[in-house]
Amino acid sequence: MTPSHRETLAARWQAVARGGEAVSPCNAVCRMDAASGLCAGCLRTIDEITAWSTLPDAGRRAVWHAIARRGALQGVPAE
């Protein structure tokens, strides 16, 4: 993940964490990392990616919380 992608993901998470719309975390990198099973751009699993369009708001927020936990392990600021 490039610094630019990291910043974009962090900014989107911050907006969601403050109660903003749970927008898609996709930033058009769309490459699955075989070792982690996560998208290199948005840190979602393939199941989270495929379910996103049908998830209710609470489900999308749960995915964002999972991304924040994963991101913290990869240097993506949570706040």
Provide a descriptive summary of the structure in words.
The chain has 79 residues and is mainly alpha-helical. The protein contains 3 helices and no strands.
Overall pLDDT score: 88
In DSSP terms (H or I, runs of 4 or more residues), the helix count works out at 3
Strand content: under 5%
Give the helix proportion (percent range).
40-55%
**Radius of gyration, taken over Cα atoms and rounded to an integer in Å:** 11 Å
Oligomeric grouping of the chains = single chain
Overall 3D shape: globular
Biggest sheet features: none
**What is the strand tally?**
0
Regions with pLDDT < 50 over 5+ consecutive residues? none
- Which structural category do the helix and sheet elements fall into? mainly alpha
Separation, N- and C-terminal Cα atoms: 18 Å
Q: What is the ordering of alpha helices and beta strands?
A: HHH
Name some characteristics of this structure.
79 residues; mainly alpha; single chain
Short summary:
By secondary structure, this protein is an all-alpha fold.
What's the helix and strand layout?
Elements lengths: L2 H15 L28 H6 L5 H17 L6
Helix pairs in contact: 1-3
